[in-house]
Amino acid sequence: MNNQQIMGLGQQYLMPTYNRLPIALVKGEGAYVYDADGNKYLDFVAGVAVNALGHCYPAVVQAVREQAEKLLHCSNLYWIEPQVKLAQMLVENSCFDKAFFCNSGAEANEAAIKLSRKYAKKNGFAQRYQILSMRNSFHGRTLATLTATGQDKCHAGFDPLPEGFAYAPFNDLAAVTAAVNDKTAAILLEPIQGEGGVLPAERQFLQGLRQLCDEKNILLIFDEVQVGCGRTGSLFAYQQFGVEPDAITLAKALAGGLAIGALLVKEKANVFVPGEHASTFGGNALATAAGCAAIGAMLEKDIPGQAKKTGAYFQKRLQELCDRFDSLQQVRGMGLLLGVCCDKPAAAVVAKCVEKGLLINCTAGTVLRFVPPLIIGEAEVDQCIDILEAALTECGF
Which domain CATH number covers 290? Predict the structure, then answer.
């Protein structure tokens, strides 16, 4: 089928939950994807930070192929070898002690929310159940994680929302401190707000949160669903800030393209017992075998270090565009999670880039977001900049 045929069937049979661009992707290799009409695109969306190793990374493909021939699924009633190995890799390369696996970032954050309440009850704070998250945050699309998301537009139409959530301004330690009360069980935040506009936390803000949580005996949880697994220039984003949370949530890039999520916790937050939390497909053999291959490659080839180096070059090239185009205001981000803030809606630039063979996206309405595969080099960055410059010119930026 060609693009038009696939789009026609999709419009007939799929629920309209996405504003999809008018192309149907059918193949990917490295930093490039191809649509059903044979057009080639440089992919700087990467499945929204999922394909960190590029499309069809050989080690991941081989691991999936080999595992699919042995065992796809057997339930968590039994020990699963690749799940145990992936947990070991994550724990031994972080400050955490235990791992729980699920299927998505939203599920990982759901687990963190439940964990927060259980931690409070176990430590004698029966009245604590509230999760304090940040304005402009994004934590998922389930009803609880949607409520934890600090964006009114995401809440619209889904009332009544679950109880137990409160919000404070990002990077405002005084406001967060004032928002903590005798009901607060945990503070949940992204070290870099992705959907909120690629806005990094300030180091002093995170250090202040760590001190506050220690003083109040509440959990500090980092949502690293988008920023974890090498994207910021280290395996985990918290390592860039010198602040250790009590738990982090992971997903997206963790299995090189397969669906997976994880909650990593320090021993103090290791409070679940059998029967209190579970996931039928979480940590299945296929996904965790892919995870072992993906994380193994990141560690062996220092993919985070490559992302840091290429990210610095990319940030420099984006800043050059900011200096030339009046409507571009600021470059923000870290590693290979970068955003360019515009003074007007930027969706037209995204569409124009697609026409020219470049995939990027727009978040918060006015921020062009770039989350390319971490394996790209300066040549791919230069190609992106050339297309982006032409698109900005044609869109009158």
Answer: 3.40.640.10
Q: Which domain holds residue 158?
A: 59-300
- Cα–Cα distance between 301 and 195 in angstroms, integer? 29
**331 pLDDT tier (thresholds 50, 70, 90):** very high
Joined tokens for residue 292? 């072992």
Rounded average pLDDT over 127-138: 97
pLDDT digits (tens, 9 = 90+) for 372-383: 999 999 999 999
Show which of 261, 280, 300 is a domain's final residue: 300
User: pLDDT digit string (tens) for 8-28?
Assistant: 999 999 999 999 999 999 999
Q: Are 292 and 371 part of one and the same domain?
A: no
Dihedral of the alpha carbons of 332, 307, 241, 365, in degrees to the nearest 10? 30
Q: What is the band of 193 on the pLDDT scale with cuts at 50, 70, 90?
A: very high
DSSP per-residue letters across 207-236: HHHHHHHHHHT-EEEEE-TTTTTTTTSSSS
Please indicate, yes or no, whether residues 86 and 52 belong to a single structural domain of this protein.
Answer: no
Count of structural domains, the chain: 2
Instruction: Mark whether 241 and 203 lie in a shared domain.
Output: yes
Q: What angle do CA 139, 332, 344 make, to 5 degrees?
A: 90
Same domain membership, residue 65 and residue 130? yes
Rounded Cα–Cα distance for residues 43 and 53 (Å): 12
Determine contact, residues 132/184, Cβ cutoff 8 Å.
Answer: yes
Interval 252-286: pLDDT, tens: 999 999 999 999 999 999 999 999 999 999 999 99
pLDDT digits (tens, 9 = 90+) for 171-181: 999 999 999 99
Say whether both 169 and 264 belong to one domain.
yes
- Round to whole Å and give the CA distance between 114 and 288: 23
The burial of 98, by beta-carbon neighbours within 10 Å (0-12 exposed, 13-18 middle, 19 or more buried), is given as middle
Query: Which residue do the tokens 């996904």 mark?
Result: 287
Q: For residues 28 and 119, state if they share a domain.
A: no
> Whose CA is closest to 189, among 139, 228, 143?
139
